[in-house]
C-alpha cells in the first residue's frame, strides 16, 4: 500500500480535479502569447532566460542572446551542444503542453494568465528538439521522457503546474501520473516559483477569436475514396485544414500519413 505524504506530488495529484478533455476549438499558440514574451521585464525574452539558466559553457552576444552552450538534457539523459541556428538546436518544452492546458481549463482563462503559463519557468524545460517534437501536445498518459530516471520529476512538475494554475486532469492522465509516482511516493511537489499566474507584460493584446475562418489549403492529392477527407502532403497540412486525427483500422486516411510514434494514431 502506497503511503501518501503531505507535500508530495502524489498527494497533490490526488487533490486535482478530474474532468473530461474539453474541445480544442479555438486553440492556437497565439492564445498563449507570442513566442517568447519578456513577462518578467528583465530585458531578455523567456527562451533566452531558459537557455541562460540551464546551459553551461555559454557563448553570449550581449546580455541576453545565447549563441552556444551545452545542455544536459534531463529528458534523454544526453549532453547536447547548442549552436544557435545549427543542427543541434535546443527546444524549450512546455512541461504541460499548451494544447493540453487549453483543453483542461485554459480556454476559459484570461489572456494574461495563459501568457503567464506559457512563460513560467516551472512549466519550461530546455530539451532536444527531437524529444520536444516527439512529445507534441501529449500529456502523461501518452508520453513520458525517454530517461526513466527523470519521469518522477517530470510528472511532479506537471502536477505542480496544474495545481498552480488550477487546470484539471483527465482520468487517463491522472492514472498515468499515479502509476509513475507510485514508484517514488515521496517525490516532493516542486515549489510554484516566484512568477505570478497573471502576466504583467503580455507583449500585446489577445488575439481575436472571431476572425474569419482561414481558407483550407488546396490538397496536394485528390482522394478517390467516397466520403474521405482530402489527402494532403503532410499531417501538418491536414491538421492546419482542420482534419485528423486518424485511427489505424478505423479511418482509411490513417494509411496516407506517417505514424511517427507508432501508437496507431496519426495527424493527432
Biggest pleated sheet? 3 strands, antiparallel
Order of helices and strands: HHEEEEHHEHHHHEE
Number of strands: 7
Structural domains: how many: 2
Label the overall shape.
globular
Count the DSSP helices: 8
Helical amount: 25-40%
**Over the alpha carbons, how many angstroms does the gyration radius reach?**
20 Å
Which strand order spans the largest sheet, edge to edge or round the barrel? 1-2-3
Secondary structural class: alpha+beta
Span of the ends, CA to CA: 37 Å
- Weakly predicted, low-confidence segments: 210-226
Overall pLDDT confidence = 89
- What fraction strand? 5-15%
Word description of this protein:
The chain is α+β, with helices and mostly antiparallel strands and 268 residues long. It folds into 2 domains: 9-181, no CATH class; 220-268, no CATH class. 25% of the residues lie in helices and 13% in strands. The protein is built from 8 helices and 7 strands. The protein has helices at 9-15, 46-54, 98-102, 111-118, 129-135, 151-165, 171-181, 235-240; strands spanning 56-61, 65-73, 78-83, 90-94, 124-128, 246-247, 265-266. The strands form 3 sheets. The protein has a 3-stranded antiparallel beta sheet. Strand 2 (65-73) and strand 3 (78-83) form a beta hairpin. It is globular and about 55 Å long. 34% of the residues are buried. The model is unreliable at 210-226 (pLDDT under 50).
